[in-house]
Design brief:
Chain lengths: 157, 332
């Protein structure tokens, strides 16, 4: 099957990797060339959050897509998509902590506790953290799961 | 007003050749600014820039509306002016959409002329004012105000207009006029954002009569030496520098003098978040974010720490007495 060989092509994963970096490249370019509008800090924080949400939706869509389409090979992209969601979520958190809070630990802690929507975002990031930390093949093997089910964690989340 | 009306003189003693061509005086202005920037520090540059644009600073897109330097206490902030592009491209004007770029993109459909403002309620002389009448009602002043948005960002804008008190005195409020209500235009054919139900249109704002009479309360017709761009609330709006920006109603069509405290649109939509007074106050946080600091648009770099927000946006000397004895945590 032509489609199947396409998913399994050696370049498929590196290509997806590059595609996942495009939003970041766009934002970095925008920040450097002052193309992020009047309030670049706000634009950066928001789009990083948007992209982590989009990534999460894509990650969660992999399994249903695989089942519906019968394209089992789609599963090999799930971990990378999940990790990129975590990557953008971490950048989102970093941008908030740095650009909005000036990296003041006290201010950040107080803000997270005080504001429901910040607390929710932070909790979501905390939930992604163990999934990302246990996503390496080696860790998964140590934890006793077969390497093939590397992304069980991502499908649960 | 067509721009040619300002270029052609009606005075026969002034020859067309006597009038400095626009290109030349604009070049001089640029030259002045350049010189100031190169010669001295930021302070001198800001000063020279201010002098160079004393009567105007607009990019020549709209009709000129010069104003004399205001003598009202606190009316001339020495902060560096925000860029015209930022002040006209990053706006909250929900009648044209909720994105910051929406007003600049969609406000072209607003027709700021002809325009009439109705004054009614507890006044001796109610009536309708045509825009041209209002423009001539009192001499135009230029005032440089800090503008603090409730969302935590700020700008510095040179407005052109006169104290709202000038209009109020003309209509003679009676003793029952305790509050003033301001109603903005709500016309679906001109304002595409009205289709979304974020707020209950028309946009309504209110002030206590003594707040409205305060000399800093500005009825603005222009900014940067030109008439107001549509996205900034053309053809006339309020500017209340010690209150969060949303209190400064735009594109006003009705002013009503009332006995009972009016309910502003934002208070109606979220009473816990937006009070009637909405004075800038770093000690009273918005339930969803801190009001202790702000980001100055176009000036602070990406990694610059946000600057502390000042009580009454730095206008405490002028307006704090209006709220003497009031619990500002309760009357937020």
């Amino acid at each position: 099957m032509a489609r199947r060989s396409l998913w399994l092509h050696a370049a498929a994963k590196p290509l997806l990797f590059l595609i996942c970096l495009l939003p970041l490249a766009y934002l970095v370019w925008g920040a450097v060339s002052e193309n992020l509008g009047a309030n670049p800090a706000e634009a950066l924080i928001r789009s990083l959050g948007d992209w982590s949400l989009r990534g999460l939706c894509l990650t969660l869509a992999v399994t249903p897509l695989r089942v519906i389409s019968g394209q089992a090979a789609l599963a090999r992209f799930r971990r990378m998509l999940g990790l990129f969601s975590f990557f953008y979520a971490s950048l989102h958190l970093l941008a908030y902590a740095w650009l909005d809070m000036g990296l003041e630990p006290g201010d950040i802690a107080a803000d997270i506790l005080k504001r429901p929507f910040i607390l929710m975002g932070f909790t979501a990031w905390l939930m992604l953290l163990p999934l990302a930390a246990t996503s390496f093949n080696r860790v998964i093997k140590t934890m006793g799961a077969p390497a093939g089910s590397a992304c069980i964690a991502w499908s649960i989340c | 007003m067509p721009r040619s009306a300002h270029i052609r003189s009606t005075d026969p003693r002034i020859l067309p050749s006597d009038i400095t061509p626009q290109a030349i005086y604009q070049e001089r202005r640029q030259w002045l600014q350049l010189m100031a920037t190169g010669a001295a520090g930021a302070g001198l540059a800001a000063w020279a820039g201010r002098e160079a644009m004393a009567q105007t600073a607009g990019p020549g897109k709209l009709a000129k509306l010069p104003g004399a330097r205001s003598a009202v206490a606190g009316a001339m902030s020495m902060d560096k002016l925000s860029r015209y592009a930022d002040a006209t491209g990053y706006n909250n004007f929900y009648e044209f959409g909720t994105e910051k770029s929406d007003p600049a993109q969609y406000a072209g459909s607003l027709r700021p002329r002809p325009w009439t403002v109705t004054v009614e309620g507890e006044v001796g002389k109610p009536g309708s004012f045509d825009l041209d009448q209002l423009l001539k009602l009192s001499p135009m002043e230029e005032r440089v105000y800090r503008l603090r948005c409730v969302e935590g960002w700020s700008m510095v804008i040179p407005w052109v207009g006169y104290s709202l008190a000038e209009l109020i005195k003309k209509v003679e409020p009676n003793s029952r006029a305790k509050y003033v209500e301001f109603i903005s235009l709500a016309d679906r054919s001109q304002m595409p954002g009205l289709r979304n139900g974020v707020l209950d249109w028309p946009y309504t704002e209110g002030l206590r009569i003594d707040e409205a009479m305060h000399p800093l309360s500005l009825l603005a017709f222009g900014m940067y030496g030109e008439v107001l761009p549509n996205q900034n609330g053309a053809p006339l709006r309020l500017v209340l520098p010690w209150k969060y920006g949303f209190k400064s109603a735009k594109s006003i069509v009705k002013i009503r003098f009332v006995e009972k405290q009016p309910v502003s649109s934002w208070t109606e939509s979220a009473p816990r978040e937006y009070g009637f007074y909405s004075n800038v106050n770093p000690q009273v946080d918005h339930p969803r974010w801190s009001q202790g600091s702000e980001r100055r648009i176009g000036e602070d770099g990406l990694f610059t720490k946000k600057r502390p927000t000042l009580m009454f946006n730095g206008y405490a000397d002028q307006v704090a007495s209006l709220y003497a004895g009031m619990d500002l945590k309760k009357f937020y």
